Every structure is written in structure tokens, then in C-alpha cells.
Amino acid sequence: MSDAIIAETVMITGHGGDEIEAYSARPLDPGKQVGGVVVIHHMPGYDPQTKEIARTFAVNGYNAIVPNLYWREAPGASPDDAAAVARAGGGVPDERLVGDVDAGIRYLNALASANGKVATIGYCSGGRQSFLAAVSLPLDAAVDCYGAFVVGDPPQGSPLKVGPLVGKAPALSCPLLGLFGAEDKYPSPEQVAELEEALKAAGKAYEFHVYENAGHAFFSVNRPAYRPEAAMDGWQKIFAFFGKHLS
Amino acid sequence: MCTYVTEKVAVSGSAKGPDGWFRVTDGSVYFDHPVHAPEDHTLNIDFLAPAQGAAARVAVELTAESARALAKAIEAVLARVPPGLV
User: Fold this and answer.
1) Is residue B38 part of a domain?
2) Domain span at residue A92?
3) What are the tens digits of pLDDT across the range A133-162?
4) d(C-alpha A234, C-alpha A68), whole Å
5) Do residue B4 and residue A82 have CB atoms under 8 angstroms apart?
6) Per-residue pLDDT band at A167 (split at 50, 70, 90)
7) With pLDDT > 70 as the criterion, what percentage of chain A qualifies?
8) A3 or B47: whose pLDDT is higher?
9) Residue B51 belongs to what domain range?
10) What is the residue-wise DSSP string for A178-203?
């Protein structure tokens, strides 16, 4: 397989029929039908680091798309300005997130190289949203990287307009890979254990890894929270998981 | 984590951004991930003019310690203003 890719900004039809911006990264000549990954960006937005994650999937033989979840609030704004607007408004409503991820799935499945299998992956707030997508839409795999408030409510006074999702575990449509930091507080190791119990009780396929010496956002290469050891192992786990479920 | 811990405040004044000075109408104070500061979390202040779009924003990201020092300095200066001016 060649490592040549094409990466570009596209428009997709998101929730409510809204046209939203998205970043698409795909193998240029995969030589076979390949799986797709909807990458859900973190709260700080549709930023260069998230686009780099999409390109990494493309280099490794997957079609990837990152919907710009803040496009409606701030079309054309820089990612940090758009994130400031979105966070002040309490984040992305769950219903809209599901519609926008669904748009990403439809985009991926319409590609000539698509094999019809699609996963979601999300980080931080996007981790919760990856789980949300997986209990709301038919998927082949989902990855939750330290998503807060899958279990538990946001702190009192938080403008975040979301509630816990753990009760929806019986609706999970696909195997779930969870990657967490032992030093994280949101989600705490106790909350990760509660999610695991709920998945077990619902008879769902899951694979959880909790990394020592890592806290929240250990994949974030541009932040002090970056933990190379956990991140490198995490990437291996992700590719093994996708190799199994998206091929 | 994304804390989303936020206080919003109406402000009246001006701020200088990349395109020059503009009138600000809103402020957001929050403790969350910074975009640029080399910290996991910072006290962030946005001075905003929402009517002029998302880019009408002057942002600062401060460590909690320096944000407290700033808040004290603001109060100290206002307390020393000669009578009748504020």
C-alpha cells in the first residue's frame, strides 16, 4: 500500500440539513476497499492537531472525516474563536452531534473506496460524543478516548447542557474501545469502572485500557498532558481494534 | 477535562484585536484547557463583541495564581481612584 494521501476541506449535509464544513483525509490509492473513521474533535475545536489525526488514519489505510462541529456558530472563524463561541453556548447539543456524525458516515460510505464499515473516535468531549454516536447510530466500532460525563453529571453551575449516557449502554451498536488515564478525574477510574460494569451487564463487546502515569488528554501532542508512552500504545490499540472491526 | 466552568459578564469598553480597536459588550471568564498557554488548564478571559462575529475576541489565558493576582490588582487600583471618578 502506498502512503500517499489526499486531504481537503469538504462540505457535508449535517443535522437538520445544514451544510457544514468537514476535513476529509483519504488514501490516494488504497488498492482495495477500506473502512472509514469519523474523527470527533475535542472541545478546543476543529484544530490542526485533530486534522493531523485524520491524516494519520489516511496514511494507515482508512478514509477519515472530521466534521467541524462548531461551523454553525462560527463559519470561517479560527478554531479557537469558534470554540470560544461554542463553549459559551454550552457545547454541542447531543441531537445535533448525532446528525453531524451521521453525515460523516454517509460521506464515508459514498466514497468509491469504501468497504461499508465505519467507526467513530473522539477525544475529551469527543470521547463522550463517540459513545453517544455508538448508542444512536449503526456503527462497526467506536473508540472513546477519556470522554467525560458518559458516567456522571457535569459539575454544578457548568453551562454544559449534557447528561450521563451510561444508561444507554444496552443500545450500543458496536464493539467499544476505551482508552483512559489512571490520573484523570473526568472520567475518574471509578466512572470508567461503572461504565465497564454497565457494558458487561448489557452483554456488550468492549476493550478498556487505563494507563498509569497518564491523565486527561494524554494523546494531545501539543499540550503538557501528552504522555508519549500511553499515546503510542494507545495508537497501537486503536489500529489493532480497527484492523479487526473495519476490515 | 473540559470543565465548561464559566461566568459570563456584561462589559462596556474597548479592546484591541488583530484588526484594531473595537467596542466590547460581553466577557467570558472560564477555567478550562488553554489554546496556547503551556498548562493543562488556565483561567481564560474572552472580551467579546458577538454582534461583530466570532473573531471579535481578545483572549487571555492565565495560570490560576496569576489570574488571582490580576483580580487583586484590579480591585487595588479601583480602590485608589480619587473620589468622584468612579
Assistant:
1) yes
2) 5-245
3) 999 999 999 999 999 999 988 877 677 778
4) 24
5) no
6) very high
7) 99
8) B47
9) 5-79
10) EEEETT-STT-HHHHHHHHHHHHHTT
For residue B33, what pLDDT is reported? 86
Q: Which chain B residue is nearest to residue A187, measuring alpha carbons?
A: B1
Instruction: Tell me if B41 is assigned to some domain.
Output: yes
Give the largest CA-CA distance in chain A: 52
Distance CA A59, CA A32 (A): 14
- Out of A41, A42, A216, A245, the active site residue is A216
The distance of A176 to chain B (nearest Cα, Å) reads 21
Nearest to A84 among B3, B5, B59 (CB): B59
Residue of A73, A78, A87 with shortest CB distance to B4: A87
| Total tally of structural domains belonging to chain A | 1
CA–CA distance, A33 with A113 (Å, rounded to integer): 5
Question: Least CB-CB distance to B2: which of A74, A88, A124?
Answer: A124
CB contact under 8 A, B33 and A91: no
CA distance B84 to chain A (A): 36
Dihedral pair phi/psi, residue B52, rounded to 5°: -100, 5
Any domain includes B84? no
Q: What are phi and psi of A170, to 5 degrees?
A: -60, -20
Interchain pair A186, B54: CB under 8 A: no
Residue to test with chain A: of B2, B9, B32, most A Cβ within 10 A: B2
- Closest partner residue to A154 (CB to CB) among B4, B35, B38 is B4
Residue A82, chain B, CB below 8 Å: the answer is yes
What is the tally of structural domains in chain B? 1
Exposure string for A174-206, b = 16+ CB within 10 A, e = fewer: bbbbbbbbebbebbbeebbebbbebbeeeebeb
Report the CATH number that the domain containing residue A154 is assigned in CATH.
3.40.50.1820
- A216 labelled catalytic: yes
Helix (H, G, I), strand (E, B) or coil at A238: helix
The answer on pLDDT for A20 being more than 70 is yes
Q: How far is CA B33 from its chain centroid? A: 15
Does B39 sit within 8 Å of A87, measured CB to CB? no
Predicted complex ipTM:
0.79
